[in-house]
Design a protein that fits this description.
Helices cover 0% and strands 49% of the residues. By secondary structure, it is mainly β. The radius of gyration is 32 Å and the shape is rod-shaped. 12% of the residues are buried.
């Protein structure tokens, strides 16, 4: 796409007073003709992110490390650590545009719970998962003091397996479970 076109007239006068005239037609193309999405972003460790560039005919990503194709307009990045990429986009007119992007790798979500806990009827146990999650969702909610906090009190009437989904501040997710075993009380 031509951004602007202009005709320039050149006049030349030599030392004898002779004048020459000529013109040149110049097409001016835009320098920022491409668009990259997403820009600076992040992924959880082990996850992927796909970039998309519009407005060019050839592409070169530098470095090409952790990219599915370093000459593609839509490569998939699966980084093992933080990366800074520069992509050079060439138009059909031979003009070059570039973009720099920072891709951050966030730590995986982690939760640590015991496999099981034994209770007798009427007893309770405060669930307290360790790890780096800030947001929690427990299922099933029955027998719990709350289902959306990190450390609800569990007091189920029967054996229950509780599943928890933990999410970090960067939206990395992990799931775990714990069995609450409720034993019968034997009276002599």
């Amino acid at each position: 796409t031509i951004y602007e076109a202009s005709t320039f007239i050149v006049t030349v006068l030599d030392d004898r007073g002779c004048m020459g005239l000529d013109s040149v037609f110049v097409d001016i193309y835009p320098s920022n003709f491409s668009h990259l999405s997403p820009v600076d972003s992040g992924v959880c460790a082990g996850d992927s992110l796909q970039y998309t560039i519009t407005g060019g005919t050839s592409f070169l990503w530098i470095p090409g490390t952790f990219l599915s194709d370093s000459t593609s307009s839509n490569p998939v990045a699966t980084p093992e650590n933080n990366m800074e990429y520069t992509v050079y986009v060439t138009s059909d007119a031979g003009c070059v545009d570039s973009h720099k992007v920072q891709l951050t790798v966030y730590p995986n979500a982690m939760i640590s719970l015991p496999d099981s806990v034994s209770l007798y009827p009427g007893e309770s146990y405060q669930l307290d998962p360790q790890g780096n999650c800030l947001y929690f969702q427990w299922f099933p909610p029955s027998g719990l003091s709350a289902s959306n906090i990190s450390n609800p009190i569990a007091q189920p009437d029967v054996r229950t397996r509780y599943f928890v989904t933990g999410t970090t501040e960067n939206r990395c997710v992990v799931k775990d479970s714990i069995d609450i075993l409720v034993w019968e009380t034997l009276l002599d």
